[in-house]
Structure formats: structure tokens, C-alpha cells
Amino acid sequence: MAESLPSVAHRPSRLLAVLEGEAANPPPVWLMRQAGRYLPEYREVRAKAGSFLDLCFTPALAAEVTVQPIRRFGFDAAILFSDILTVPWALDRGVRFVAGEGPRLDPLEGFAKLPEMNAKAVAERLSAVYEAATLARLALTEDVPLIGFAGAPWTVACYMVEGGGSRDFAAVRRQAFADPKGFAALIDGLVAVTVEHLGRQVEAGAAAVQLFDSWAGVLAPSAFRRWVIEPTRAIVRGLRKRCGKGLPVIGFPRGGGVLIPEYVAATGVDAVGLDTAVPVDWARIAIPATTAVQGNLDPMALLAGGKALDAEVDAILNGFAGRPFVFNLGHGIVPETPIAHVEALVARVRRSAAAR
Ligand code: CP3
């Protein structure tokens, strides 16, 4: 690395330095779903809020749970507490969370009569989310950036068409093949809404954004290109236009497999989140070293703890040593995870610098 570049230690944020393409030792670490039910302080605020959506839409409480994991573990980034399904909520899709069953929505019946997708109106209904971002930003120190996020259009459409989670999302996959024009109208509307939703989060204090494409992995390659890569590229382009070229965007095409390098090249994301199934030694070769990678510890290794956890953490750290890399999970943390295992993980990542 050129000597004239400022070292990571002098940057206000280690995460932002890595997203700009620098290697950091130790790497920054945060965890997907780091604010959640495995934390007693989260469960306390959650009980006070009433429903999960009330928690999302009460700015002071959403900001408070955003900051909780930073206070407890000293992670290198906070992710705004919200949900990808706030967007369909704002589109009047009857989003509700049924205890023990996960999310439920009123399923779309075909694409002939889509809900009106006026990006400004949707963002108006989600103003509490941006207020939460502002309050969280005020509560964080300068070295801890706030990450904003949204579901990517394909994944949000999955929930809107199926009316909830699904094993294989067969109905939405069938309908995307049967009526590609109609489905494109839904996806295009979600692209516009997502650019506005993320732009507002950035204006409220988010320094980077992540697009969660949790169900990218169920698609045939042609459909992956059409419904994952194309809309993601449009969102990246729209965000750069709106927020400037410097806004870091992290894409997370979960299950993208061998199409991940194509996703990286075609979408223009600054960083790519790798899911648990991606082999580190493959990623190191297949993804250009100019793109930051994030991941990809199995949340079950974190749940198990002990020697197995240590070995998995070391393999990931060694595999991505010397590259721009953000330590994270390969999917969200599970509620049963012991706090001591998270403490051990963070300590091991931080200690790894001494070994190098
Ligand atoms: O990462 C974070 O800490 C920020 C907050 C966050 C949540 N959801 C909070 C949440 C983020 C980034 C999400 C993203 C999200 N939400 C995704 C994409 C990532 C992934 O997991 O694939 C998806 C698919 C959703 C939709 C969603 N929200 C589901 C399927 C569920 C129910 C599952 C469950 O655990 O009950 C939720 C609810 C939800 N979102 C919870 C949290 C903390 C649990 C709700 C509770 O407290 O009862």
C-alpha cells in the first residue's frame, strides 16, 4: 500500500476505511441482527414497546436498541433498528408479526392492480424510521458509523407475493416467469421506493447502507440476473446520484453462490456480504481484492461456541487477511445465542491483530 495513504488508525471509522478499499488489522466487526432477542436489554425495551412494529416506529426506543449492542460489545458499526418489511407496511400490505409464526402480509393477487408506489409518500409514512436514525446518530460516538438498510426489491417482492415467509418461494418464482412485465412493474416501483428510503436514512445520519437480498439464492441464473442484479444496479446508480459517489453500499445476495462475482461486477456495490455457504478460499480468488467482503461466520458456530467457534473465526480471519474485510456472520444472529459467545468472538477478532 502507498505510504502516503492515511492509515486506518487515523480514520474516524475503521468500517468506512475498509468499505473504501483499505485492509484493516484487526478487521472491523459487527453482526447482522446484532440488536435483538438474545440481549436482555432488548427484550426489556421490546416488552415496553408492545408490538415489534411499535418498536420500529417509536424513534426513541428504536434508537435505544440500535445503540445497545455497541454499548455492550463495542462493535465497529451500529445498524439501524428497523425491518425490511416496513416498506410493504407503508404500501398498505397489512404487515403484521404473529408470535412464533414470523411475518404475515396480505398477498398480492397478480400484478395488474399494484399498490400505488409513490416513493415520496412511502418515505413520508416512514418518517419515524429516519427520526430513529437521527437519534441513534446523536447517541453514537464519531468512530462508530450508523448503517442504514433496506430489503432488496426481489426479497421484498417475495414477501409481498407469498404473504409471508416460505420454504422455497415457489409462487413468486412462478409468477415472475409467467408475467415478467407485471412483475417488472412491481420491482421497478420497489427500486424507486428503496432509493428514497435509503436516501432519507443517509440524510438522517447513516454513513453506509446495506441491501438485504435474503432470498437471492432461490432463483435460476437468468432470473437472478433480471430480479437481483438489475434492480440492485439501478439502486446503486440511484443512490450515487442522490447521495454522491462516496456513499458506501454493501450488497448481501444471500445464496448467490457462483453468481456473486458477476453481482459484484455488474451492480457496482462497494462491498459484498457473503453467506455462510461461501468457501473463503474460493471468494478470495473469485472476488477482486478492490471490493470489500463481509462475512461469513455460521450463526450456528456462534451458538455452539468453544473450540469450534474459535476454529471457524480463525479460518475466516486468515482467509481474508490483507484484504479489505469486515468480520460478520453469514446470516442473522439467533435469539438463543449466549452473550458470552459474542464476547469471545469480538475478543478473538480484536486479538488477531497481535498475531499478524
Ligand atoms: O441487524 C439488525 O440488528 C437490524 C435490525 C434488523 C431486523 N430485521 C430486526 C428484526 C434487520 C437488518 C432485519 C432484516 C430482515 N428482516 C431481513 C433480512 C435479513 C434476513 O434475516 O434474512 C428479513 C428477511 C426480515 C423479515 C423479518 N423480520 C422476519 C422473517 C422476522 C421474523 C423472524 C423472527 O425472528 O421472529 C422479522 C422480525 C424481526 N426483525 C426481529 C428483529 C429483531 C424479531 C422480532 C422480535 O423482536 O420479536
Oligomeric form of this entry? Answer: single chain
Distance between the termini: 16 Å
**Total domain units:** 1
Globally, the shape reads: globular
User: What are the low-pLDDT stretches, counting only 5+ consecutive residues below 50?
Assistant: 1-10
Number of helical stretches of at least 4 residues: 16
The helix content is 40-55%
Summarize the helix and strand pattern as letters: HHHHEHEEHHEHHHEHEHEHEHHEH
Q: Would you identify the CATH architecture?
A: Alpha-Beta Barrel
| CATH C-level name | Alpha Beta
Q: Main beta sheet: strand number and arrangement?
A: 7 strands, parallel
Structure description:
The protein has 356 residues and is an alpha/beta fold. It has one domain (14-355): TIM Barrel (Alpha-Beta Barrel). It has 16 helices and nine strands. The strands form two sheets. A seven-stranded parallel β-sheet has the order 1-4-5-6-7-8-9. The protein has a two-stranded antiparallel sheet with strand order 2-3. α11 runs parallel beside α12 (260-267). It is globular. The protein starts with 13 loop residues before the first helix and ends in a 5-residue tail after the last helix. Residues 32-37, 46, 52, 79, 81-85, 97, 102-103, 149, 165, 212, 214, 332 line the site of coproporphyrinogen III.
